[in-house]
Amino acid sequence: MTCIPILHGDDNGLTAAVDALAVGQLVGLPTETVYGLAALAGDDMAVSRVFAAKGRPQFNPLIVHVTDVAQALTLAQLGGQALGQALALADAFWPGPLTLVVPKTAGADVSQLATAGLDSIALRAPAHPLVRKVIAQAGPLVMPSANPSGRLSPTSAHAVVQGFCDPHQAKDLVEDLGQAGPWDIALVINGGLCAHGVESTVIGLTGDAPTLLRAGPIDGRDICAVLDLPALAVPDDRPDAPQSPGRTLAHYAPARARLRLNADAPGRDEAYLGFGLGLSFTLNLSLCGDVVEAAANLFRHLKALDDAGFRKIAIAPIPSHGLGAAINDRLARAANADK
Ligand code: TXA
Ligand code: MG
Predict the structure, then answer these.
(1) Which pLDDT does position 79 carry in this prediction?
(2) Does the CB atom of residue 200 touch ligand 1 within 6 A?
(3) What is the pLDDT of residues 261-299, one digit of tens each?
(4) Which of 11, 81, 183, 203 is buried most deeply by CB count within 10 Å?
């Protein structure tokens, strides 16, 4: 099981990790909750490779990991009560296993795939000293748990390698992936066993009241104590839930334009979002027909066409192998959103 090297968290290992991230590769990193599969948050292709390597069938938004409040504030657009609440929670629990979902600042250098096209962003300053050193040198990182989709979250470097490399565990994954996969994971840094073993608590600060989006190591009652609230709100429409009602689906869709899927040609008043070779495309998700590149461009191109004033977007057929399934899932939901 040597398909991904495990390196010590010394200067050599950390330099190798930072160098790999800088060229768009993925790196397994220890955090105090679980091991994360890291990519530079601003690198569209690298973020797309994270989804591909995990074999994720959907584009759920990812957490962007930062060193501290100052770096978080460069990515968040906070004012009023939410700002006060975010600062109070960060002061009490950062660095640590708390993720805050807040409005995203317009110019944030974060891939739109990382936030799944939402105008909010999930931010966490992890406590593990090794991941903190990598973020300090490389910049903000997306990091879902470092396991193939649907498998257990790893709490050791060996578990990361086992999940992606064990032929029995990884077989279906490799057959499914198409052009990207575990081979994009350059290395894993060994930071010992994770202290918590479960993913961070996620608190939403974008609505009327602070909301518990995911239970985790920090108890909701401790959050309430800091915010001086009797209770946290509970979401009934999680943004990544397939059964989410229309309000949330609309968030994932372009703001104004309607989508028409599997279109072989555009109508007269339609923009045409292409895939592969073709003459009449307004924009192309991937000229060479690569689903990983298409995923990297998906939200950015949809937004560009929407912002350019098109009210109808026809989308060329996209094959459903590898990340194509996640692309088609997201497009189908966006096409069904009410306008
Ligand atoms: O402990 C952790 O948080 C681990 C370690 C590696 O840091 N990371 C992790 O990442 O669990 P991930 O990407 O698997 O978790 C993302 C969670 C999901 O529940 C997702 O729905 C939520 O954060 N989330 C991310 N962005 C969001 C957003 N804009 N709005 C609402 N929820 C969001
Ligand atoms: Mg996970």
Answers:
(1) 85
(2) yes
(3) 999 999 999 999 999 998 789 999 999 999 999 999 999
(4) 203
Q: Which residues of 254-283 are buried (b: 16+ CB within 10 A; e: fewer)?
A: beebbbbbebeebeeebbbbbbbeeeebbb
Q: What is the pLDDT of residues 145-194, one digit of tens each?
A: 999 988 899 999 999 999 988 766 554 544 454 444 567 899 999 999 99
Residues 33-52 have a mean pLDDT of: 97
Q: Is 99 in the pocket of ligand 1 (CB under 6 A)?
A: yes
CA angle 294, 57, 26 (to 5 degrees): 65
Angle at 300 between CA 294 and CA 301, to 5 degrees: 70
Q: Which ligand 1 atom is the nearest neighbour of the CA of 37?
A: 6
How many other β-carbons are positioned within 10 Å of the β-carbon of residue 339?
A: 11
Q: What is the DSSP string of 230-285?
A: S--B--SS-TT-TT--HHHHHHHS-SS-EEE-S-SS--TT-EEEE-SS-SS-SEES
What string of DSSP letters covers 148-215?
A: -TTSPPPSSHHHHHHHHH-HHHHHHHHHH-TT-SGGGEEEEEE--S-SS-SPPEEEE-SSSS-EEEE-
CB of 76 closer than 6 angstroms to any ligand 1 atom: no
Contact 142, 65 (CB under 8 A): yes
Distance CA 63, CA 276 (A): 31
Distance 60 CA to ligand 1 centre (A): 8
Instruction: State which of 62, 75, 160 you would mutate to test the pocket of ligand 1, scoring each by most atoms of that ligand within 8 A of its C-beta.
Output: 62
pLDDT in tens, 64-106: 999 999 999 999 998 888 999 999 999 999 999 999 999 999 8
pLDDT in tens, 212-259: 999 999 999 999 999 999 999 988 655 554 333 334 544 556 778 899
Kindly report the protein residue whose alpha carbon is nearest to atom 10 of ligand 1.
Answer: 144
What residue has token string 């609505």? 207
Q: Which atom of ligand 1 is nearest to the CA of 62?
A: 13
**DSSP classification of residue 100:** E
Let me know: does 71 contact 192? Beta carbons within 8 Å: no
